[in-house]
């Protein structure tokens, strides 16, 4: 596989537009309900597959109906899921997302089998043979906070693999553990809140500089409607967001990471990869769920979007 995603796999149940939770047993009629494959590893993998990048995903799901569905939908989208392990007696991670009219998305979440993913669950040869390894949600995959996993990442990078890292949560207690990964990755892609919590800085620029000093070649901070900030040894550059109607922001971060990885694979520099990530995220924001709006999107032909 060209890309291997490692980490969080979630089933999302999305409903829109939701302006309030009905009182008692009242019912609100909605325009749309979808069930999708999501999570910082699974969602990124699905987006990569939909834009034509060969991808395999590694993670853990329960031996339950939700796990059956998640693997089925990922395979249907073109992802190799042979590296996803099943956990007997555990629940597959799932979220219920009532999407507000402005695209915002509060959530109800069960972390499930993601918490137990371990280095021994991973196919080391496949990981070290990938062109890009994307780590999705290392803040909540505690079993991978493991020197053996760091050594595996180092071996992959020594062989020419590029390693990217995205996070899942905005929970302060989970941020300190993430910093142990920074010497072992090439590109860190947090959102603004995560970057500020990780670094203790007051601004995205200061956060990116502080995190860059801890090991990555680049730190790309996503800023929602304000675009993203790309920091490398060459300096800091702002990449504006595209002006598109927003239906749902679910999966936009995963889509950005997928576009960024695809950009690197297509020979773009870091800024070019960030612009492609911006274009892919904009497409996803125009529909419901982490895989929306990507029909016909080809990274090599995305110059008009990116």
Automatic annotation (TrEMBL):
Q: Which Gene3D superfamilies match?
A: 3.40.1190.20
Pfam families linked: PfkB (PF00294)
Q: Which UniProt keywords apply?
A: Kinase, Transferase
GO BP annotations of the record are:
phosphate-containing compound metabolic process
Stored SUPFAM superfamilies: Ribokinase-like
Q: Which GO terms describe its molecular function?
A: kinase activity
**CDD domains registered for this protein in UniProt:** KdgK
Q: List the record's Gene Ontology CC terms alphabetically.
A: cytosol
Residue ranges of domain Carbohydrate kinase PfkB in the record = 4-290
Q: What is this protein called?
A: Sugar or nucleoside kinase, ribokinase family
Species for this entry = Microbispora rosea
């Amino acid at each position: 596989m060209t890309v291997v995603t490692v980490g969080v796999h979630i089933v999302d149940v999305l409903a829109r537009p939701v302006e309030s939770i009905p009182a008692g047993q009242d019912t609100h009629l909605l325009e749309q309900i979808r069930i999708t494959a999501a999570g910082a590893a699974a969602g990124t993998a699905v987006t990569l597959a939909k834009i034509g990048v060969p991808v395999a995903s590694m993670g853990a799901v329960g031996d339950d109906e939700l796990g059956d569905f998640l693997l089925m939908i990922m395979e249907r989208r073109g992802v190799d899921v042979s590296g996803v392990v099943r956990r007997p007696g555990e629940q597959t991670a799932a979220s219920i997302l009532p999407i507000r009219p402005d695209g915002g998305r509060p959530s109800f979440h069960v972390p499930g089998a993601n918490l137990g993913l371990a280095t021994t669950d991973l196919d080391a040869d496949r990981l070290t043979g990938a062109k890009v390894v994307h780590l999705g949600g290392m803040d909540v995959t505690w079993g991978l906070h493991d020197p053996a996993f760091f050594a595996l990442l180092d071996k992959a990078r020594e062989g020419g693999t590029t390693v990217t890292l995205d996070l899942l949560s905005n929970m302060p207690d989970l941020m300190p553990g993430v910093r142990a990964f920074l010497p072992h990755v090439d590109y860190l892609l947090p959102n603004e809140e995560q970057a500020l919590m990780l670094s203790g800085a007051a601004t995205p620029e200061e956060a990116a500089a502080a995190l860059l000093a801890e090991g990555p070649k680049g730190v790309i901070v996503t800023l929602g409607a304000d675009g993203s900030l790309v920091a490398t040894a060459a300096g800091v550059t702002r990449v504006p967001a595209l002006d598109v109607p927003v239906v749902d922001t679910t999966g936009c971060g995963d889509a950005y990471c997928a576009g960024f990885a695809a950009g690197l694979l297509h020979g773009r520099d870091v800024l070019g990869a960030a612009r492609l990530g911006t274009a892919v995220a904009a497409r996803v924001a125009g529909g419901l769920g982490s895989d929306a709006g990507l029909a016909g999107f080809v990274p090599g032909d995305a110059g008009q979007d990116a």
